[in-house]
Sequence to fold (168 residues):
Amino acid sequence: MKAVVQRVMKASVLVNDEVVSSIGKGLCVLIGISRDDTPKDMEYMVRKVLNLRLFDDANGKRWNHSVKDKGFEILCVSQFTLYSILKGNKLDFHQSMAPEQSQVFYEEFLQKLKEAYVPEKVKDGVFGAYMQVDIQNDGPVTVQLDSNPQQPTKKEPQPNHQNIEENL
Fold:
């Protein structure tokens, strides 16, 4: 799973020019589901979304509280394009989970998020709909999460510029 988490002053989702969901201060979370995601990925994402320390505490100490600590709201929006890859200038979505499976997976993710937090504070858009997401970013603060990041490749040793100059 991938998520783009934005700290917001407010956010809403519109479908056909009608507000279907909105929140005040909290997090707007764009969620992408890959064809290889498992319940373990879902658990990781629920834990991270709820516990990321993106908010100041009462004394103004930065990055000290989570959305859960502050009792703020969360707006989740399914976004299969997070698993797109470019083939030339065209997007390819073969890494995204199929729509029927991903809807079930996404709804289970939302349910787990609600169970781990306050159900009324977790809202979402309309799965599969053409949506407009209105975000008033706070900061701006935007964080990317990936439940299964690629292992970094081993870096090649950097040339020693002194030795290069000596050999010239």
Notes: The two ends are 50 Å apart (CA to CA). The CA atoms of residues 35 and 101 lie 9 Å apart. The helical segments are 39-51, 67-70, 99-116, 161-167. The mean pLDDT is 91.
